[in-house]
Amino acid sequence: MSKNKIVLCHVVAWLLYTVYCFVGIYIEKPQNQETIYWLQLSFILCMVIEFYYCYLLVYPLFLNRERLLFLVVAWAGAPLLFILFRYLLEETLYPVLLGFSNYGDDTTFEYIFFDNLYYATPMVVLSLVVWSVQEAFRKEKENKLLRQEKTQAELAFLKSQVNPHFLYNTLNYLYAQAYPVSEKLADAILKLSDMMRYMLHESPDGKVALEKEVNYLRSFIDIFRLRFEDRFFVDFTVDGHVDGQQIGALVLIPFVENAFKHGVADDPQVPIHISLIVMPHGLKFTVTNRISGSQKDQTTGIGLNNIRRRLELLYPHQHELLIKNDGQVHEAYLELSNL
């Protein structure tokens, strides 16, 4: 369900509940009916505040991430929020604006506290139920999409299996034929063979050695350099030790591919900057390029939308992806932790 539909459902539910309460007051026709309307309105408003405090803040931040201590503290604050707002409205604001309050002058604060604690508790539970049901539907939808994506990926993979050994042998043959003619061409064929082998490599968790990912990036850049020869300006730097670390296969390449597709690579004044900083248990990867006035390549590669999806699956709550684009310069920044 889309966010707009969820918001609409919430608005309709609260409106129906408000109408139900007001109709009940109208039918009963109690003394001081107008006063009861105002008190019912403030009561519902405090319920709304408490409900969305739990629904939008407490449960998404703490329950979903299993921060139980913070959850208990925030949970205890929900009834206090209800009591505070109701006291401010009915015992502070109403006497000034409307000339009446809910409780009498002789009512102790202790009585007000426990009386409102009784009314505040159901909203904590109701908000948990609503949030849990919505999360269950969201996760079910997410799992359904994952199953569809897995099926599509398996079909695409099967279609691409034109006997890899045949392709490797063919490239090796082309390498042997090209070497006497042009070492540059032979080297490009060899790099292409290594790249294909890397792309078809499978691992149980979808991760590979970071060193192999970096070598793939270097080969990709070298092959792309053939298109421009001496008019190719890319600054690729690697700081830190890449050995001994694991990373999701082909996680970094889409950002470089995107820079080559949409960026300017033949201007020495504004080269494409690619920076990889490797830390003991993480990395920072930045790709910066000036945006070209015309798109050079229509191929899509893996695509940034797909890489966002893969990052959510491979590094949940362990990555930060920032994309900046001011119309002149495009910058992609990726930070991974717990490699």
TrEMBL record:
Record-level GO cellular component terms: membrane
UniProt KW keywords: Kinase, Membrane, Transferase, Transmembrane, Transmembrane helix
TM region positions: 37-56, 68-89, 117-137
Gene Ontology molecular function: any one: phosphorelay sensor kinase activity
Domain (Signal transduction histidine kinase internal region): residue spans on this chain: 153-232
Pfam families in the cross-refs: His_kinase
PANTHER family registered for this protein in UniProt: SENSOR HISTIDINE KINASE YPDA
Name of the protein in its database record: Histidine kinase
Organism this protein belongs to: Nibribacter ruber
